[in-house]
Amino acid sequence: MSEVAKESVQPSIVLLVSGKRKCGKDYLSDALLKRLGHNRAQILRISEPIKRYWATQKGLNLDELLSDGAYKENYRKEMIVWSDEQRHEDYGVFCREACRTMNREICIVSDVRRRTDVRFFRETFKPSRVRTIRIEASDATRLGRGWRFEAGVDDVPSECDLDDFDEWDLRIDNNGQDDIETILERLVALTNG
């Protein structure tokens, strides 16, 4: 059993949510949490320990870095470079740190971006407990949500490492064809085993 598993509550289900910037990962994760209830589920963000460190080192506003606003975009490239250096030394460093706050039956990891993230969760928890979800939206839809291509962000592993990954338990087309209730029903079904 890993160091994480010994120190934290063992969730019965770990949902790994992945997708490109502005595909709706955070929106759908938040809606799922609301549906499941805070007493039963929680959201973990692998990026939170990265942003916490960055805020401390640079004297930045952590709440703004954690938000979906423009503030974090000013620092995104630097955070990617630094976090990639840390992952080179220990691929699970940020996943492990995020897991230290696990304390619910269902854990929604809302920002899975790399194959090593999936590997960490599969190695740390029983594979039967881990569910992988890919949220997809077209570039046109993402543009409508405020996305703009940025070299060094949208063409590096933090955005592209899972592009050809094919081990998804569920793929969700989040271009607006399905209403939120239909999508949530599909997500909730994954938590039922």
Overview of this protein structure:
45% of the residues lie in helices and 15% in strands. The longest helix has 14 residues, at 76-89. It has ten helices and five strands; from the N terminus they run H-E-H-E-H-H-H-H-E-H-E-H-H-E-H. The two termini are 22 Å apart. A five-stranded parallel sheet has the order 2-3-1-4-5, with helices on both faces. The protein has helices at 3-7, 25-36, 47-58, 62-66, 76-89, 93-99, 115-124, 139-144, 157-160, 180-191; strands at residues 13-19, 41-44, 106-112, 130-136, 170-173. With 193 residues, it is α/β, with parallel strands linked by helices. The relative contact order is 0.23. Helix 2 crosses helix 10 (180-191). The chain has one domain (13-190): P-loop containing nucleotide triphosphate hydrolases (Rossmann fold). It comes from Anopheles darlingi (Mosquito). Pathway: Isoprenoid biosynthesis; isopentenyl diphosphate biosynthesis via mevalonate pathway; isopentenyl diphosphate from (R)-mevalonate: step 2/3. Keywords: ATP-binding, Cholesterol biosynthesis, Cholesterol metabolism, Cytoplasm, Kinase, Lipid biosynthesis, Lipid metabolism, Nucleotide-binding, Steroid biosynthesis, Steroid metabolism, Sterol biosynthesis, Sterol metabolism, Transferase. It is found in: Cytoplasm, Cytosol. GO terms for molecular function: ATP binding; phosphomevalonate kinase activity.
